[in-house]
């Protein structure tokens, strides 16, 4: 039986030290069936759509918004994204969903929200319930939060920086969602944030410390079958402007 999956994306690496705003006009937007235009373009969304095709998902395409790194995002962007999600959910509510797949960054800040991804996942969880698996892909530079972990089942982060594997990581996240829908497994996301921040120059995965950390993560996945994915986030060190004294 075909599994019904809502697919959406909201992607921005926010740099709050920059003046100005990243507006809705700065985002490339695909709404509804236009999402399929991303097929085979090498993006994370393309990776998810590839699995959707091969696993014969019944896709409910909501919206994909993406912009290059820049200053704080205006609230209108988040509002547009969420309104499109609500429209899709309302339209499909009589039949329900089997899963949700999201393409997110993990370090997005809007005018009103410091944790855009966490707020979105919390609202989504309130709408779809605890049993519908919510999975997806995140950037290695995501500043992931406890709220993000509590309201999702299984995200897969990029393993490489530079991000040569973004499409592949998204595909892995989609395969994980497919597994959860088939088996009924519902994993718990465990979140831990060390009190450590590296500058952007320290987050490359070809050298330590990230090289060793990524290797350790893959070893854990190989040894412990019950652990579906281990994500190492280098974080983004410039997302929050310090409070002025």
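^ Assign residues to that structure.
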């Amino acid at each position: 039986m075909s599994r019904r999956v809502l697919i959406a994306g909201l992607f921005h690496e926010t740099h709050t030290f920059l003046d100005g705003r990243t507006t809705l006009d700065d985002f490339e937007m695909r709404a509804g069936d236009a999402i399929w235009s991303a097929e085979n373009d090498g993006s994370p969304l393309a990776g998810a759509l590839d699995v959707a095709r091969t696993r014969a998902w019944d896709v409910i395409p909501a919206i994909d918004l993406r912009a290059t790194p820049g200053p704080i995002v205006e609230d209108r962007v988040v509002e547009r994204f969420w309104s499109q999600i609500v429209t899709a959910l309302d339209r499909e509510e009589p039949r329900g969903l089997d899963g949700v797949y999201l393409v997110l960054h993990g370090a997005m800040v809007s005018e009103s929200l410091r944790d855009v991804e966490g707020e979105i996942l919390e609202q989504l969880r309130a709408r779809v319930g605890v049993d519908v698996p919510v999975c997806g892909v995140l950037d290695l530079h995501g500043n992931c939060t406890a709220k993000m972990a509590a309201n999702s089942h299984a995200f897969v982060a990029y393993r490489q920086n530079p991000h040569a594997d973004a499409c592949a990581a998204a595909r892995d996240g989609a395969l994980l969602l497919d597994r959860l829908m088939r088996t009924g497994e519902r994993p718990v996301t465990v979140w831990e944030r060390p009190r450590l921040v590296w500058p952007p120059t320290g987050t490359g995965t070809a050298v330590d410390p990230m090289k060793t950390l990524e290797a350790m993560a893959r070893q854990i996945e190989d040894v412990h079958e019950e652990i579906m994915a281990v994500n190492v986030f280098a974080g983004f060190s410039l997302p929050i402007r310090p409070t002025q004294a």
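Residues 15 and 70 are 5 Å apart (CA to CA).
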